[in-house]
Amino acid sequence: MKRDVSLPVCYVTGRLEAGCDEAGRGCLAGPVHAAAVILPDDFHHPLLNDSKQLTEAKREKLRPIIEAEAVAWAVGVVDNEEIDRINILRASIEAMHRAIDALGVTPGAIVVDGNRFSPYKDIPYQTFVKGDGRFGNIAAASILAKTHRDEFMRRIHEEYPVYGWDINKGYPTKAHRAAIVEYGPSPYHRMSFRLIDQQLTLF
Length: 203
Fold this sequence. Notes:
Layout (H helix, E strand, L loop, with lengths): L16 E7 L8 E7 L17 H14 L2 E7 L1 H7 L1 H14 L7 E5 L11 E4 L7 H22 L7 H4 L5 H10 L20
Parallel strand pairs: 1-4, 4-5
Antiparallel strand pairs: 1-2, 2-3
């Protein structure tokens, strides 16, 4: 991805603008995390980019920098049981709303990665496909959502090490699906998702 290393942090000049993104939408297990981040207008970092374009080491390096220098930041979480009740799209948006709720300041505008969002109070918002590679505040949100979720998945890996969540973070790898077949689903699995390949048998 071609990237300007000085990603703009604000789309609407003169407003405290929150960038939002989620992590874990495509996973078979665990919650979906979303972050909301308001960066200062003069925030720049040469590594700042869509979290998917960064190594784990670079994401972990950026996390404390973003958390220390942001005007405000917060992470919202929707667990797997609620995902099963309301569906993953609604859960992703709900996690973003919870992150905005927790900011401690009211943003003047919201920008969101992707093409779907639901109104939050009366605050104007705009969605951007691949916005995490275009705007610094969305990129920062993608990094916080990803690192906070990865931390959670490493923690619950200690409870259920057979699924390899320390490595796959709950995503549908071949090894993860094979472990579900062998051991059955855990309490953290999303039962509304197709947990195994059709050619496998879940006992």
